[in-house]
Design goal:
Strand content: under 5%
Membrane topology: Peripheral membrane protein
Distance between the termini: 52 Å
CATH class: Mainly Alpha
Organism: Alteromonas hispanica
CATH topology: Helix Hairpins
Order of helices and strands: HH
Radius of gyration: 36 Å
Protein name: Flagellar FliJ protein
Number of helices: 2
Shape: rod-shaped
CATH architecture: Orthogonal Bundle
GO biological process, one term: chemotaxis
Coiled coil: 1-43, 108-138
Number of strands: 0
């Protein structure tokens, strides 16, 4: 039973480590998407500044309309990226919950294993004490017998 429990504890710990890695990967994915959004937003700001600088020297309405259309596309790309981030966060939260549940399983199995180990140690200590008591009793009886 104890060997099976030890194997189960080892299996659950490996599973917990795997869930931890999955959660870390999901978090990394969220951060990468956030960086991509930040880059898109910065590009949008720089692009608008470029339009403003070019517009000061005078541009055609068609040129200006094309650039505004492109800014609209950048806005849409930013919105889409925010949706991707929201989905990635949900996935990361799910991974975190799975990892936390697995941690609870590891703690439960470890606690049970510790409890079994402690019970075994108590039983062994009790048996050893009984043996020592018997030995002391025998010595006492022998010492009383030899004094008569």
């Amino acid at each position: 039973m104890s060997k099976q429990l030890e194997r189960l504890a080892e299996f659950e710990k490996e599973k917990e480590q795997r869930e931890s890695r999955f959660y870390q990967q999901a978090q990394l994915n969220v951060n990468q998407h956030k960086q991509k959004l930040a880059s898109l937003e910065q590009y949008r700001v720089d692009y608008i500044k470029g339009i403003q600088q070019t517009g000061q020297s005078g541009v055609t309405a068609t040129y200006y309309q094309q650039h505004l259309s492109f800014v609209g596309k950048l806005d849409k790309a930013c919105e889409q990226q925010m949706q991707v981030i929201a989905q990635a966060k949900m996935a990361a939260d799910q991974r975190k919950q799975m990892w936390l549940k697995q941690q609870q399983k590891v703690k439960a199995v470890t606690l049970l294993l510790d409890k079994k180990r402690l019970a075994k140690e108590k039983k062994e200590a009790k048996a050893e004490q009984a043996m020592l008591d018997e030995f002391a009793t025998q010595r006492f009886i022998r010492s009383k017998s030899s004094s008569f």
